[in-house]
Design brief:
Structural class of chain A: mainly alpha
Distance between the termini of chain B: 67 Å
Structural class of chain B: mainly alpha
CATH class of chain B: Mainly Alpha
Mean pLDDT of chain B: 87
Strand content of chain A: under 5%
Oligomer: heterodimer
Radius of gyration of chain B: 22 Å
Strand content of chain B: under 5%
Shape of chain B: elongated
Helix content of chain B: 55-70%
Low-confidence stretches of chain B: none
Order of helices and strands of chain B: HHH
Number of strands of chain A: 2
Chain lengths: ~775, ~120
């Protein structure tokens, strides 16, 4: 089991190497991996049929009670077998389709990693693991859709896919966390055992919303449908895989998996049938509008997804049986048809419906495969598609209004899909051979294996429908519904049943539309133009608005004007100082000391400092300002001297004198504007801000000196300076002994600054007269 | 005196910030010096003032006699003054070089790293 989950990723890591060594045969070699996974999974069929489910569990994050648990039951096995089986054929096909492509190895790696994520997604029992694999499919599909990254359309398709599906991914994360809170377990199997616990909780609505959002975005339901046709920018093998068994089916799988936990309520049925039905009709009509075969198929995928969602919403045994049958039938025929269209495109150079005709002679094997798949899509006996259609019509055959509505939608949708099937699978091959950009000839063997095998499987499964019923349908439907479902599939047509006549009705409708296809298409195109607004355009509008908003915000905050940065910084400083001081009632704790205790000489020093400051601010010439700067520095040195700090006073004197001398020397070399360049309003703003900050500092300091001081550290230094450190100057002892490392750091800073100064001054000689900014230099 | 010095420290900070907010590089440089002095005064005052008693132990004694000034803030400030001077020297040379290269000392006109007409983000995929 662990092998199933890991093998595709390992193969993905090795794919580029295999591609280099094996060359043309690499496709065959790499296809062995999914084929082996398929065979391995086949081994699970017997135990699943016998026991219902096979749980597999590894410890993952035991501290949080998270296990990497897998759950192989009928539902997950059906999906996993389809994914790995079709995956093997796709890898083989891709090896030939992209033959000679520089990045074929990379492509195969993406493809295998994508398949691995998808397998993990359908097999996971732990919801966190499910989410991780869900997101992995989004990331790997992004890489696949945007594989031709030099084309803007491919990039756009990829970005659209990842943005839309990631919205759903986030919703899924929220959904499973709330589910965990309500249900108390991370495992889906445990949640299923909880019965109607979730349905009856007050959080049912939000959970349902999140899960539905996840499923609808991933499975491209209206109104999130637009990313899927745009994902057609990917190379055809990717489209074939994405549209048949993987990616978009993840949403369907999620809904199916959640049916026993969330399903069965009225709102569930109405929402699923409503959105599913809308998507079915939308996709089918949009498909008829196209003339590009690939686009046509892409739109029918929307329709099929809508159909599956609708069936899950109906939730009756027959509807679920129809859903399982249709999922398998659809995966087989859709992958086959995409490969056929890819082969047509590859061999004729066009996939435009109006330019292709009479290809049956040139590509007979492709035609056979196309016809097989086409019959399944139309739902003709003897194909799996026929049984799927019978079951789904039976599932909606009930007197309630919702079922009746669903029945009408199903008949209409099936009719339109059948028309598309006839156009895609039959029309290009019949008639007289027309001219094509490339001279048409049969596709190479690796590109034929896939469609032929898949097309034939659709018939074989129908021929052994009894066994198919017991081996696939029963376990899957039982797992989905949570109780045992009996398969009643049999290889017989009951002419008295009304269902077969409903099928006949849909075929008749299909024939009618096919007959008038040109008129229908013209009408649909006209309607589409008349609306002139699509969700696709809306996506662009939203994305560009986001980019503009980000640009504007960046400009607003990152405007490149130093003074505004400083204004913001100092405003924050003022707030940080004032709000706690005043807010926590600090004002009342302040005690002002007696002014009379200040001696005359102390007043003189204070006045000297204040005068110096004012003079610095108000000086008319630079030289006066620098001298005033010296005055305030000397005043500070005097304050240090007066209050028991001769060392500080001495150092301050030295530094101030040096600063003034150096500043004066530099100033004489610069031709500077004497005046303050600030306009009046800036002057007021800066002044107010400065006063606010200064006032805040004063307030804080007043508050500090009004409180008591913990002098234990100072007392320790004073008491141990001589006995321990053998120095009588306590300040010096602290600097060079107790805090010696700090002083080392200080010296390092001074040295670094000196080196930087030297470096800056030396570059002058090399820079020359004018400065020319170079690339990357700022 | 503590209260008076508290007000003086506030005045230093206000003057320093006012100078820093001016767009002329030399005035900003002075602002750095003044703000540094204000901060030193803040630390000094927060450690309380003592009019007499330098933190020096007389020769022959194990401990200082009588009240002495708090030695801890002095040690901190001594470090701060030296580092402040290093910072000042470095900034001064930086300003000098910037002036030589760009031929102006107005920070608003120094837009080499963040030009006014920087291109807008492209609206495409």
């Amino acid at each position: 089991m662990a092998l199933v989950a890991i093998a595709p990723f390992l193969a993905a890591a090795l794919a580029p190497l295999v591609q280099r060594w094996a060359g043309g045969l690499a496709g065959w070699v790499l296809a062995l991996v999914p084929a082996a996974v398929f065979v391995l999974l086949l081994g699970f069929v017997e135990p699943v049929v016998a026991n219902g489910a096979v749980p597999v569990r590894f410890a993952w994050v035991p501290e949080h009670g998270l296990d990497l648990s897998f759950w192989v039951d009928g539902l997950s096995l059906t999906f996993a077998l389809t994914i790995s089986g079709i995956g093997a054929l796709i890898v083989l096909y891709a090896g030939s389709y992209l033959k000679g492509h520089v990045h074929l190895g990379r492509f195969q790696a993406f493809l295998l990693a994508f398949m691995g994520s998808m397998l993990g997604l359908v097999l996971a029992d732990n919801m966190v693991a499910l989410f991780v694999f869900w997101e992995l499919t989004a990331v790997t599909s992004f890489l696949l859709i945007g594989f031709d990254h030099w084309r803007q359309a491919a990039r756009r398709g990829a970005i659209q896919a990842i943005v839309i599906t990631n919205i759903g991914g986030m919703a899924l994360l929220v959904g499973i966390i709330v589910l965990h809170q309500v249900g108390g377990a991370w495992d889906l199997s445990a949640m299923r055992a909880g019965g109607s616990l979730v349905r009856e909780s007050g959080f049912y609505g939000p959970i349902l919303l999140c899960i539905l959002l996840a499923a609808f975005t991933k499975s491209a339901q209206v109104p999130f449908h637009f990313w899927l046709p745009n994902a057609m920018e990917a190379p055809t093998p990717v489209s074939a895989f994405l549209h048949s068994a993987t990616m978009v089916q993840a949403g369907v799988y999620l809904l199916a998996r959640m049916t026993p936990i969330l399903g069965g309520t009225e709102i569930w049925s109405i929402v699923l049938v409503g959105f599913g039905g809308a998507t079915l009709l939308w996709g089918a009509l949009a498909a008829l509008r196209q003339t590009d075969l690939k686009q046509m198929l892409a739109q029918t995928t929307l329709a099929s997804l809508g159909l599956l969602v609708l069936l899950i919403g109906l939730g009756t045994e027959a509807a679920i049986a129809g859903m399982v049958l249709y999922f398998v039938a659809h995966a087989l025929y859709k992958a086959a048809l995409f490969m056929v269209v890819g082969a047509l495109d590859h061999e004729t150079g066009t996939r435009d419906l109006t330019r292709l005709s009479g290809m049956a002679d040139r590509m007979p094997v492709t035609f056979i495969a196309a016809a097989l798949a086409g019959f399944a899509m139309i739902g003709l006996p003897p194909t799996l598609g026929f049984f799927a259609k019978e079951e789904m019509l039976l599932g909606a055959f009930a007197p309630q209004w919702l079922q009746t509505l669903a029945l009408v939608v199903l008949i209409l949708g099936n009719a339109l899909l059948a028309t598309v099937a006839a156009i895609v699978a039959i029309k290009p091959f019949l008639g007289i051979v027309g001219p094509t950009p490339k001279s048409a000839h049969e596709a190479p063997l690796p590109m034929l294996v896939g469609p032929v095998v898949l097309g034939a499987l659709g018939i074989v499964a129908a021929l052994v429908i009894d066994q198919f019923g017991t081996l696939v349908l029963e376990p899957a439907a039982s797992a989905l519904l949570g109780h045992h479902v009996e398969s009643h599939l049999a290889w017989a047509i009951d002419w008295r049943s009304p269902i077969i006549w409903l099928s006949a009705l849909s075929w008749t409708l299909a024939a009618l539309v096919y007959w008038q296809i040109d008129k229908v298409r013209t009408m649909l195109i006209r309607m589409h133009r008349a609306v002139n607004w699509t969700a696709d355009n809306a996506f662009d509008a939203v994305m560009f608005a986001l980019i503009r908003f980000a640009g504007t915000t960046t400009r607003l905050l990152h405007h490149g004007r130093l003074e505004f940065y400083l204004v913001v910084v100092f405003a924050m400083v003022a707030l940080a100082l004032l709000v706690p001081t005043i807010g926590m009632g600090g004002l009342s704790a302040i005690t002002i000391q007696d002014w009379t205790s200040i001696g005359l000489h102390e007043w003189v020093v204070l006045l000297l400092a204040a005068t110096g400051l004012v003079a610095v601010l108000g000086a008319q010439s630079r030289l006066v300002a620098i001298l005033a700067l010296g005055v305030q520095g000397v005043a500070v040195a005097l304050i240090f001297l007066l209050f028991g700090a001769p060392d500080l006073g001495f150092t301050q004197f030295m530094v101030e004198v040096l600063s003034v001398i150096i500043l004066t020397l530099v100033m004489t070399r610069l031709r500077l504007d004497e005046r303050d360049p600030r306009p009046m309003e800036d002057w007021i703003r800066d002044g107010l801000l400065a006063l606010l900050c200064g006032g805040a500092v004063s307030l804080l300091l007043l508050l500090v000196v009004s409180g008591t001081l913990d002098t234990s550290l100072s007392d320790f230094f004073a008491a141990t300076s001589v006995p321990i450190a053998h120095g009588s100057n306590i300040v010096n002892v602290i600097l060079v002994d107790y805090r010696g490392l700090d002083t080392l750091g200080e010296i390092a800073v001074v040295m670094t600054a000196a080196l930087a100064v030297v470096a800056l001054l030396r570059t002058r000689r090399r820079a020359g007269e004018t400065f020319v900014p170079k690339d990357g230099e700022a | 005196m503590d209260s008076a010095l508290a007000l003086l420290a506030g005045l230093f900070v206000a003057a320093g910030i006012y100078l820093l907010l001016s767009r002329a590089l030399i005035r900003m440089l002075m602002g750095v010096l003044v703000l540094g002095n204000g901060t030193n005064l803040l630390i000094f005052t927060a450690g309380r003032l003592a009019r007499d008693g330098v933190p020096i132990v007389p020769p022959g004694l194990e401990q200082a006699v009588g009240p002495i000034a708090n030695p801890l803030p002095q040690a901190l400030i001594l470090t701060a003054i030296v580092i402040g001077f290093a910072l000042f020297s470095f900034l001064l040379v930086l300003v000098y070089r910037a002036y030589q290269v760009l031929d102006c000392d107005d920070t608003d006109a120094m837009r080499l790293a963040e030009p006014v007409d920087a291109p807008k983000p492209p609206l495409s995929y």
